[in-house]
User: Which sequence fits this backbone?
């Protein structure tokens, strides 16, 4: 399993840039230590995901952590998503013990130990910020999906991430105005949020497609009440992740509609129009 996951590791160009900058400026130890911490952090995510039976297609390493790319056509239970996300930061909890153990070897001195502790703490705290695509931002998104419909949860997570990134950037400008690596990371995160916002329609379409084709039955039930003039687009926007949906059409003498059946009919072209009343 370890060899399989290691074969899927890819280093993002931004990380190569940070590694090159660290090497050229004489900070080789800092660069090597950062790489090791990020690698172990991300493997924590990947191993946990693999343990739950998730399909890990790629592990992309970034200066502030990484992204384990998964099969997007699968939906996963809330507790599994939380554990996979927490598994990365948990590695940063025990990693200081590794550094203390290395002190017994001649290649690892007090300077390297201090660098390790500082970088490990910085990565842990930074990664827990509620900003997409950091672990804290993704965890926030998972919790928002419990409270809000899929589309709304995604939008709220991204908009909050922009606000939080703006606040963090203001502090960074005040305390670390000339930290090139930090501003590279901030720029990358901003672009990642922008890219994710652009991909939202595609994510939403995949969510509906997965819902229409899955054979799973969810314990959570959402009873939706919509007017007979409601469009299918508006109705689908009310759908939650990992939930069954019963749709009552107000003002129409029709039985309640099952959300999964509605999505299935939509993709099969069985809906006469884009109005909920056109179904059946």
Assistant:
């Amino acid at each position: 399993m370890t060899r399989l996951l290691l074969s899927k590791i890819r280093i993002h160009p931004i990380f190569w840039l940070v590694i090159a900058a660290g090497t050229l400026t004489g900070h080789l130890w800092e660069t090597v230590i950062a790489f090791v911490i990020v690698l172990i952090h991300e493997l924590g995510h990947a191993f946990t995901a693999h343990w739950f039976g998730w399909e890990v297609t790629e592990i992309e390493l970034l200066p502030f952590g990484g992204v384990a790319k998964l099969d997007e056509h699968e939906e996963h239970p809330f507790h599994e998503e939380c554990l996979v996300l927490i598994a990365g930061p948990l590695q940063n909890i025990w990693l200081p013990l590794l550094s203390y153990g290395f002190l017994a070897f001649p290649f690892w001195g007090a300077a390297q130990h201090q660098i390790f502790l500082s970088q490990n703490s910085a990565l842990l705290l930074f990664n827990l910020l509620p900003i997409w695509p950091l672990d804290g931002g993704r965890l926030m998104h998972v919790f928002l999906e419990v409270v809000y419909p899929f589309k709304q949860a995604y939008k709220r997570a991204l908009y909050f991430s922009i606000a939080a990134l703006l606040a963090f950037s203001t502090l960074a400008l005040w305390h670390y105005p000339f930290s090139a690596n930090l501003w590279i990371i901030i720029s990358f995160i901003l672009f990642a949020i922008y890219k994710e916002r652009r991909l939202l329609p595609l994510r939403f379409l995949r969510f509906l497609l997965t819902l229409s084709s899955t054979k799973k039955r969810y314990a959570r039930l959402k009873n939706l009440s919509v007017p007979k003039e409601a469009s299918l687009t508006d109705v689908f926007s009310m759908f939650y992740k990992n939930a069954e949906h019963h749709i009552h059409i107000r003002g129409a003498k029709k039985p309640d509609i099952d959300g999964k059946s509605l999505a299935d009919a939509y993709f099969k072209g069985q809906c006469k129009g884009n109005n909920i009343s056109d179904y059946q």
Summary: The radius of gyration is 23 Å.
